């Protein structure tokens, strides 16, 4: 019976590539593991998979009775609805410890670094397992994505070292140029609905009993969305109602300007204003230097609840 490995809902490149890379490692170590995903592939992840000739993991949303490993999350709000009916063998992550609990001991690799694939690279090193060329390229791209090509405050020396090591294995000389190609693909909005854009990298959080949804759309130039802000807000209102949220935030992150335009709908906007020390006007505010939801948004917002 196979063990399934998957990342959070609305998966980003780290969670998809993390499932693939961890499954490969576990299979090399003698476990029968299959990478899966909880949601659709983003344009950026599609770019990475095509660039290195890899297939999309199987879409699977129910895991009752299964053995599983979790990658890139440990929050119930980002897990399958039946996760409590699964046996969690391990967690590999780089976020805060969430509210998932287990009935049995588990393997945990959780590090305060920029990307789950950096953690997995360290696991490969620990076990002495060689990383195939194309897998190394995908892991490298996942790290470049999560660290915004090293610009994110979450980026550490471990992440930059991992990228350089993986670049050598994958025979890629100019990894920053490839990273920019990847972000251009990530910025693609033509034909995308407001729901697709809002949910492209969206996560739900339970903040001390209050439901908060936070999405992030990283782009080379967010001005391309100027004519669609109204659409985004209309869809945010629907998401807020559908999920019973107190607050929904969408961060439009400009990787060149190194900041984020905050879009917010909240039952109490003063909590958001206090969190970021800004004045919200027309449900918007510019957050200079904010690139990381994990390090620059969640730690400031959660105490307000």
UniProtKB/TrEMBL annotation:
Its cofactor is Mn(2+). It catalyses: diphosphate + H2O = 2 phosphate + H(+). The keyword Heme does not apply. One of its GO terms (cellular component) is cytoplasm. GO terms for molecular function: inorganic diphosphate phosphatase activity; metal ion binding. Its EC number is 3.6.1.1. The keyword Transmembrane does not apply. Keywords: Hydrolase, Manganese, Metal-binding. Gene3D superfamilies: DHHA2 domain, inorganic pyrophosphatase (n-terminal core). PANTHER family: BNIP - RELATED (PTHR12112), MANGANESE-DEPENDENT INORGANIC PYROPHOSPHATASE-RELATED (PTHR12112:SF22). This is inorganic diphosphatase. It comes from Sulfurimonas xiamenensis. The lineage of its organism: Bacteria, Pseudomonadati, Campylobacterota, Epsilonproteobacteria, Campylobacterales.
């Amino acid at each position: 019976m196979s063990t399934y490995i998957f990342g959070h809902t609305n998966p980003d490149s780290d969670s998809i590539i993390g499932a693939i890379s961890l499954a490969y490692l576990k299979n090399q170590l003698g476990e029968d593991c299959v990478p899966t995903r909880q949601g659709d592939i983003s344009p950026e992840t599609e770019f990475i998979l095509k660039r290195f000739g890899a297939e999309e993991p199987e879409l699977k949303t129910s895991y009752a009775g299964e053995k599983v490993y979790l990658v890139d999350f440990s929050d119930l709000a980002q897990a399958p609805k039946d996760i409590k009916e699964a046996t969690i063998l391990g967690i590999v992550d780089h976020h805060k410890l969430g509210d998932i609990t287990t009935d049995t001991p588990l393997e945990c690799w959780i590090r305060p670094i920029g990307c789950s694939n950096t953690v997995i690279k360290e696991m490969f090193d620990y076990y002495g397992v060689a990383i195939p060329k194309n897998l190394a390229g995908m892991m490298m791209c996942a790290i470049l994505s999560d660290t915004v090509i090293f610009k994110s405050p979450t980026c550490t020396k471990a992440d930059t070292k991992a990228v350089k090591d993986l670049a050598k294995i994958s025979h890629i000389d100019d990894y920053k140029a490839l990273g920019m190609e990847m972000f251009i693909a990530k910025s693609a909005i033509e034909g995308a609905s407001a729901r697709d854009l809002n949910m492209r990298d969206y996560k739900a959080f339970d903040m001390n009993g209050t439901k908060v949804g936070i999405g992030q759309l990283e782009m080379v130039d967010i001005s391309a969305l100027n004519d669609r802000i109204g659409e985004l807000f209309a869809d945010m209102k629907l998401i807020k109602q559908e999920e019973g949220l107190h607050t929904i935030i969408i961060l439009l992150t400009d990787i060149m300007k190194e900041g984020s335009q905050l879009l917010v709908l909240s039952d109490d906007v003063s909590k958001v204003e206090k969190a970021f020390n800004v004045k919200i006007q027309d449900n918007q505010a510019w957050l200079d230097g904010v690139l990381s939801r994990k390090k620059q948004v969640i730690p400031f917002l959660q105490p307000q609840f």
